[in-house]
Amino acid sequence: MPNKTIYVSDDDLALYKRAQELAGNLSQAISTALRRFVEMEEGRLEGFDEITVRVGRGTGRKQRFSGVLLAEGGRSNKNGYEAFKVYRSRTGKFVLHADRSNLYDHTTTVNGDEQDSTGWRSWIGSFSSNQTWSMAQGESTLHIVETVEELRDLIPADLYTLVEDAAEQPTVEDLDI
């Protein structure tokens, strides 16, 4: 195995020491960091960004990938709102991040009986002193598909048209100006 000498400034010595403590093997830690750096820089040079999205209910968990935003849009109905973002990943797949949330949950007590209603129209009507309001928890999902056609049933038609057009365009167009 070839040896490489890395010169470390006094200012960075603590960083290298901590990396070795965390990884157990400094060479492995450096290789892992360099691999990630090269992958992200090559992607950036190709026009891709590091995308981090939340997935799940409420605050959910974070998921990260390298991609470029193709289009975004949303739709609403009486129960809530759906927001969509469609990306092309660095590997050529299409990634749909969908964020769905109810606008409000509204409960009214009338003559001792609880009545639930949801949506923004629920506040119109009788205002009694026995009402409770709360923001409903949303849910975000991530769908990964191979082709644009697989997105057709997952997003609104007008957004699908935008994605279809954007998918045919290069990630970055270099201009000689």
UniProtKB/TrEMBL annotation:
* Name of protein: EXLDI family protein
Species for this entry: Kribbella ginsengisoli
